[in-house]
Write a structure and sequence with these properties.
The protein is an alpha/beta fold. It contains eleven helices and 13 strands.
């Protein structure tokens, strides 16, 4: 594990010059860095725009961002009790961990949860009490940080207590360990998770270079125990906002049995502005994917809206091009083609 700029420079040798090192140290003094040896090994140091490097190595642009805010989603506003976010009526998120194997440079919570502490047992009891009192909550997301950084026994305890609440029907875990440190997904961990069905695991592959034999094996350890996997990418400028890159990512995911679920517009989090794209890029990109990959491989493109009544909103191009009393003109099977759908009878 590389946990400091000093260690990073020692490992990189001449790949990092003096000015870059000073900028990295200044950035890392504000935003923590940690890069697992495995993920570090995927970096192409000959490529200054390497998509692996950009996701894990401190960048001076993080501390020059004076436009975005520290918590644009205002998750604290939806905190029924500390460590629990109840934003949607039937779902809640439990911040089980404040640590990650890798501190992604685009992280939504780089200014909030990562700078907090792990909940105490008393605070967890308060979380359980809130869940018991709010029977409308049917689904609990265990997140953080990364829950897979927790001792297996502690994560088992959390899951057991949540599962014992009758009104909670499903549990999800959000983790990037599969992608950045796949050896952390051990047989012991997978066996423990199997006890808590119905349980889903969602991860975050952002680039096809992250789909490796090691990450595929980590996925298989969970899948072979009946745990379904979904992927929630973040749309990142210069990393996955190109058509061929996104196609390769989606095809790679379905090959390793991970369902592409969401592609998020990068949140307006302080320190991430250099990753931002406009929403139109995401709409156009997903529209292209509609013609380039199977339907089940096309994720939803969503904006996590930061307004007073915000939340995840699906944004997509309309495929109804024209409507009359008798028929619809729809996008066709191939890009650029159209077809006519008659409302009251079969097509001519």
């Amino acid at each position: 594990m590389i946990g400091s700029v000093e260690e990073l420079c020692r490992r990189c040798g001449d790949a990092i010059d003096g000015d870059t090192r000073r900028q990295m140290e200044e950035t890392a003094s504000k935003y923590r860095m940690a890069v697992p040896d495995y993920y570090f090994g995927l970096i192409d140091w000959e490529d200054p725009d390497c998509p692996i490097r950009r996701q894990c190595i401190p960048d001076s642009r993080e501390i020059r961002d004076d436009v975005y805010t520290e918590d644009p989603l205002r998750e604290g506003r939806f905190s029924g009790v500390p460590y629990l976010v109840h934003k949607y009526r039937d779902r809640a998120a439990f911040m089980a961990s404040n640590a990650c194997y890798m501190y992604c440079r685009h992280c939504t919570r780089k200014n909030t949860v990562i700078n907090s502490r792990r909940p105490t047992e008393e605070e967890f009891e308060n979380v359980l009490g809130y869940l018991r009192a709010h029977k409308e909550i049917k689904d609990v997301l265990v997140t953080g940080g990364d829950p897979f950084t927790l001792p297996v026994e502690l994560l088992d305890h959390y899951l057991t207590e949540i599962r014992n609440i009758p009104s909670v029907e499903t549990i999800r875990i959000g983790t990037r360990a599969i992608v950045v440190n796949p050896e952390a997904v051990t047989e012991e961990l997978a066996d423990m998770l199997k006890k808590h069905h119905p349980l889903w695991v969602f991860t975050q592959f952002n680039h096809p270079k992250e789909i490796t034999p090691q990450s595929e094996a980590a996925c298989a350890r969970l899948l072979d125990r009946g745990i379904p996997l979904g992927n929630q990418s973040v749309l990142l400028r210069g990393i996955n906002d190109q058509e061929q890159v996104m196609e390769d990512l989606l095809r790679g995911l379905i090959r390793i049995r991970v369902r592409p679920y969401y592609v998020y517009l990068c949140d307006k989090v302080k320190g991430t502005r250099h990753f931002a794209t406009d929403y139109g890029t995401g709409v156009r990109l997903m529209e292209k994917m509609r013609y380039r990959v199977p339907g089940y491989a096309v994720p939803k493109f969503v904006i996590d809206a930061d307004g007073e009544n915000g939340g995840k909103v699906t944004i997509e191009a309309s495929h109804i091009l024209e409507e009359t009393e008798d028929y619809l003109i729809l996008s066709g099977l191939c890009e650029g083609e159209v077809t006519k759908y008659y409302k009251g009878r079969c097509s001519e």
